[in-house]
Amino acid sequence: MAVEAGAHALGFVFAPSVRQVDPEMARGIISRLPPMVTRVGVFVDAAPARVREVMVECHLDLVQLHGEESPEYCQELFPRAIKAFRVRDGTVLSQLPLYRLGAYLLDSYVAGVSGGTGRTFDWDIAVQAKRFGPIILSGGLNADNVRLAIEKVRPYGVDVSSGLEAVPRKKDPEKLRAFMRAVAEAEGVAA
């Protein structure tokens, strides 16, 4: 459904979460995807060997790391690593240059939560972060605000999950289509 609506990448959560999938389930979905859709594995503080194992097993293109992974950890997976940074304030900008990554994902900070908070953060910080490399904007995005977010930040990409759900784990088809229409409009593409 996401691919039909125009998504360029799909994330598969391998970390403990209500959205977690096992490698077998992910492999089954991935085997049916068109070739130009990027397959992303989402991990939180998993052992690097396990991440590489799942990447091979599931034919993942990239990994998105949402834990306390160090710059050295991420370097082992470069250029196929995206590191998520939870933005509380502008101090996050001092962390980014410590990492060599394919992209930096900026998400909202909520104590004790690794992602999927449904909350936005100060997008001016994301604009400033672009000087360090490609930025993927996340955190509280939905069909009502994604166009403004794209117009303001001009990120490399946007990442959404909970903002498109009817209930946890279940995407709402109309929310998904409305989100993708708003993304296309922000990019100046006819939806």
What can you see in these coordinates?
31% of the residues lie in helices and 20% in strands. It is of the alpha/beta class. Strand 6 (135-137), helix 6 and strand 7 form a beta-alpha-beta unit. The longest helix is centred in the C-terminal third of the chain and has 14 residues, at 173-186.
CATH architecture: Alpha-Beta Barrel
Regarding CATH, which class? Answer: Alpha Beta
Strand order of the largest sheet: 1-2-3-4-5-6-7
* Largest pleated sheet: 7 strands, parallel
Q: Give the ordered list of helices and strands.
A: HEHEHEHEEHEHEEEH
Average pLDDT confidence is: 93
Structural class: alpha/beta
Gyration radius, rounded: 16 Å
Count of DSSP H/I helices:
7
Strand content: 15-25%
Distance between the termini: 15 Å
User: What form results from the Cα inertia axes?
Assistant: globular
Short note summarizing the structure:
This protein is 31% helix and 20% strand. The chain has helices spanning 2-5, 23-30, 48-58, 71-77, 123-129, 146-153, 173-186; strands at residues 9-13, 38-43, 62-65, 81-87, 103-108, 135-137, 157-158, 165-167, 170-171.
